[in-house]
Amino acid sequence: MIARASSRRKEHGLSRRERNHVPMNTRHGGFLRIGIAAAAMLLGAGATAQMQMANHLIDGITGPAFTLTAKAAYLSTPEGNSIYFWGYAGGDGPAQYCGPTLIVNQGQAVTVTLRNELPVPTSIVFPGHTGVTAAGGSPGLLTREAPAPAGGTAGTVTYSFTASRPGTFLYNSGTRPDLQIEMGLVGALIVRPAGFNPMMPATWRAYTTGDTAFDQEFLFLLTDMDDTIHSEVELQVLIGGPIVADTAAYFPVYWFMNGRAGPDTMAPAGAAYLPHQPYDCMPMMRPGEKLLMRVIGAGRDPHPLHHHGNNALVIARDGSPLRAPSGPGGGAGADLAYSVFTIPATPGGTTDAIFTWTGRGLGWDIYGHAPGDPLAPYEDPEDHGKPFPAVLPTLQDMTFGQMYSGSPFLGTLGSLPPGEGGFNASAGFMYMWHSHAEKEIVNNDIFPGGMMTMLMIEPWHMMP
Amino acid sequence: MKYASLNNLALLCALCFLGANTSRGVDIYVRAEKTSLTLPDGKTVEMWGFIRDADNNFATLETTAGYGFQGRSIEIPPTGAGNTLVIRLFNRLDVPTSVVIPGQNGYAAAAPHATFVDDLGRTRARSFVAETAPGAVGVYQWNNVAAGTYLLHSGSHAALQVQMGLYSPLTRQQSNTSPYPGVQIPASRQATLLFSEIAPDVHDAVQEGNYGPTPVDPARQMTSTMHSRPRYFLINGVAYSQAAPPPDIVLGGNRNNPLMLRLLNAGLDAHVPVVGGLPVSAIAEDGALYRYPREQSAVFLPALKTTDVVLTAPVGARLPVYDRRLGLVNDTQSPGGMLVYVQN
Questions:
Q1: How far, in Å, are A324, B276, B278 from residue B313 at the CA level?
Q2: Is the ipTM of this complex over 0.95?
Q3: Which chain A residue shows the shortest CA-CA distance from B280?
Q4: Is the separation of the CB atoms in B266 and B301 below 8 Å?
Q5: Does the domain spanning A1-61+177-188+202-464 belong to CATH 2.60.40.420?
Q6: Residues of A with CB below 8 A from B332's CB?
Q7: pLDDT tens-digit map of A49-64
Q8: pLDDT in tens, A77-114
Q9: Interface residue of A122, A133, A141, A326 to substitute, partner B, most B CBs within 10 Å
Q10: Closest approach of chain B CAs to the CA of A125, in angstroms?
Q11: What stretches of A329-428 adopt beta strand conformation (E)?
Q12: Mind listing the domains of chain B with CATH numbers?
């Protein structure tokens, strides 16, 4: 059963975990395998199959010296549209929507050289950082700009600053931001705290204090898009005319998470059919783990990111931990973290939150234990052995989704008719994470889609 | 809020002789009147504005002071000068209007809010508080006026009258050197930044007499602001223009010390002020001091919200303050909109 299900999942190109556990050459992060297994191992009757659930760090490119190229390309939306956009590319790579996630360490001297292949001047601003200097290019309203190419040579400008504090930040165009942010010139910047080692999960913290430790880390860079503006700009670029777009009439019809609209959010990172949208947005975790959500409002509108399953503890805003200043006697200030089930993503702002889930409070044993069975890792004893509170219909009376494992229990597969299910080989649980502005979970009026993905709860152990 | 409407000229003149500051507090003389605003692309719109009568005397109508929609604050003397605020509103508009100050909870109401009878014969509310008729002077009173940053605005048909410009910052210091208890920032280190929007179709309909149930031209009738959208975005009543940029806001005092920006949003949409991309400490919201400051670099400012932020900027820095919600155009012209520079 397990082997068959896994095989089918791979055939459909959805074996995301398997793709991600080996970082791409240009990427940092993805799933870091801890443990030995390469596939589920059947250990005989009554034994437990050990799954290779991995710990995830956000995909990105490491610095501290970066070269980004602003250029045009086309992005894809799940209902079949292809939209002209402007994006940042890592070096000479393809333009990305959103731009490459820049990952640096606290204290590093960061330089970002911007090459401009767009037909208009452009630039980058780095909100949340002090002492940002710019060299080269020409003066602009918010910072120095890389001019449009002249004589086939891209204009350039270089920005420098010290990543003095850890946290979640964004970068975006500082030149005509109403148009260029809309066109796609946005990206994330993550500053790791001192002592962070990507190969040692025990060192993983969002900030310097131990209460910001995490096991899984995912990015939620949220953007919105009015494709009529993109069509206007595309035509104007094509005919070589001035770029005149009516951004005051902005009316978005697309919404993205990490540059993808649902359900592409759940397609594998680096999917070949999304060459300009390399980042996925599908959080995965095991019960009891701490999942760090780095939420960025990179578009024009605020978006309420609603995470089903449990509340999350908001620990930082705009790269500043939610902790009061130290009192006169020194020591740590008051903990100002707070718990929510919807994170309001402010345009230009970032929010860090830690999400945990154990199934606590559901009122039934999610593992299907008998009262005398041992507890599963992080299982809530309160519900241990409590029966599933419904009588399942027989298979003849059911229809099946691709993600149904054949069982309501975490980590337990059940019988399914031939050809049914098969996309949930580890019998995980899923919760939708989406914009709570419900019109934003469509792709140009086609439901479902937009700012929508799924959290996957993977079991610690696969039950036979 | 205590209210009285005076249509009698004699009574109006009698009011003129009331002192500005009384033993119990302060009297403010404010006019509501029409004016116009020319935007950077040459478009001129009719505005309705609150303007402080400089000599506290409606017998003469001074026009030297700026309108509330231009960011001109009504400044209440610091606590200690009495805690009662009386606003005497001279309505020079063609429609009834009124004044409310969200966050100032010491209303002393002496008259009911205004109502009207709709087409179905139902009595419905038209205002939040008692109205002042055209040509009349209304008296509004608040007790226990608190220090802080507030947005005074019309309480009558607010969906239209706020859009037309009937709003103004209202500020009160805790003391001459302190905006809030425990916060030492002198007035010379403070600036007020009022974010607002212009939906020109609304202003045009009002100016042409086509707004409301009896339009001059039925083909151009506008019955509500429901479908209008802002196309101009202003800070302190000015939209940025590269050809004629607004003057920098220059802060004095000791430039090594922190500065404070009072941020207010009179628009219908939320805006997100960014101060040169620097991290700032939000210390108060809606005029209420936070227990602890909140560090951020993008300040979410919903409609009719006020937030006070404190930051330390490099000496000599020229900080662009702009809207990350991207209200950065003047109709179709760019650059423009909500951008101004603050010089430390």
A1: 21, 10, 8
A2: no
A3: A128
A4: no
A5: yes
A6: 244, 246, 248
A7: 344 568 999 999 998 9
A8: 999 999 999 999 999 999 999 999 999 999 999 999 99
A9: A141
A10: 8
A11: 338-340, 342-345, 350-356
A12: 4-184 (2.60.40.420), 232-343 (2.60.40.420)
